[in-house]
Design a protein that fits this description.
heterodimer, A: mainly beta, seven-stranded mixed β-sheet, four-stranded antiparallel β-sheet, B: mainly beta, six-stranded mixed β-sheet, 10 strands, 0% helix, disordered N terminus
C-alpha cells in the first residue's frame, strides 16, 4: 500500500529559486495537509485542504502557496526560497477533519536552501 | 539515519521494561489527542488516540491516559522492544478547527 507519497525526497536550492513539492494519496481521503518540521520542534501546519477545491492557511503560511489539484494531489510551492525555509516537509491526509480522525503521513521532503 | 530533533527530552529504558512518555498539553478546550511515533528518516506514524470523554484507552502493548484536570497525557508502552526506539509526539485538537497542535517530542532509547 502506497499511502501518502511525496516527491522529491531530497532537494537543494539556492536562495531565490522556486520549486514545487508534490504529494499524492491513494486512500480516497478528503483532507490533506502540509507541515514543516525543524530540529527540536514538533510539526507546524503550513496549509491544509479540508476537501477538494478548498485550501486554508495554517500556523506558518508565509512564503508558501498550495494547490489542491484533485482529490488525490496537494502541492506546496515555494516561489522564492529563503534559508529560513530549510526544513523537512511532510504531507499528510485524513478521512476528514482532525476531529477524531488520525492523519497519515508521507516520509517527507528534506529541503536545504543555500 | 537523520535526527529529527537536536535537543529533545530523552527517555532511556531497558529492553523488556515498561516505558512511560509524558506530555503536557496547552489548550483546555482540546477534545481529541493523538500519539505518533517517528522513526529516523520517516514520517510520523499513528499509534493511538483518545477523546476527552475518556480517561484511558488501550491498544496493542500501548495505553494512553488522559488527565484533563492537569492537562496531562501519557503513553505507556509495555515490554519495550528495540523496534520501539523512536521520537514520540503527542498532538491535540480542538473540535472547532482543522489544526493539530504538536508537542516537541520525546526520544525513546532502548538499552539492550
Amino acid at each position: 500500500n502506497a499511502g501518502v507519497t511525496q516527491t522529491p525526497k531530497f532537494q537543494v536550492l539556492k536562495t531565490g529559486q522556486s520549486m514545487t513539492l508534490q504529494c499524492a494519496q491513494d486512500m480516497n481521503h478528503n483532507s490533506m495537509y502540509w507541515y514543516r518540521q525543524d530540529p527540536g520542534m514538533g510539526l507546524r501546519l503550513i496549509y491544509y485542504s479540508a476537501s477538494e477545491g478548498t485550501t486554508d492557511k495554517g500556523e506558518v503560511p508565509n512564503g508558501y502557496n498550495v494547490s489542491r489539484l484533485n482529490k488525490r494531489e496537494f502541492s506546496l510551492r515555494l516561489e522564492s526560497a529563503a534559508p529560513s525555509q530549510t526544513s523537512v516537509y511532510f504531507c499528510a491526509s485524513s478521512v476528514a477533519a482532525p476531529k477524531d480522525q488520525p492523519q497519515h503521513f508521507g516520509d517527507g521532503t528534506r529541503l536545504s536552501i543555500l | 539515519g537523520e535526527s529529527v530533533g537536536l535537543h529533545l527530552p530523552t527517555l532511556s529504558v531497558q529492553e523488556g521494561d515498561n516505558s512511560i512518555i509524558n506530555c503536557a498539553y496547552s489548550n483546555s478546550a482540546s477534545d481529541y489527542f493523538i500519539w505518533y511515533k517517528q522513526e529516523s528518516g520517516k514520517g510520523p506514524q499513528f499509534i493511538i488516540d483518545i477523546r476527552s470523554n475518556m480517561d484511558k484507552r488501550q491498544g496493542q502493548r500501548v495505553t494512553v491516559l488522559l488527565n484533563k484536570t492537569v492537562k496531562h497525557l501519557s503513553l505507556q508502552i509495555a515490554a519495550t522492544q528495540p523496534g520501539d526506539s523512536a521520537v514520540y509526539f503527542c498532538a491535540e485538537n480542538e473540535a472547532s478547527n482543522y489544526q493539530l497542535i504538536w508537542g516537541a517530542g520525546t526520544k525513546l532509547i532502548i538499552k539492550p
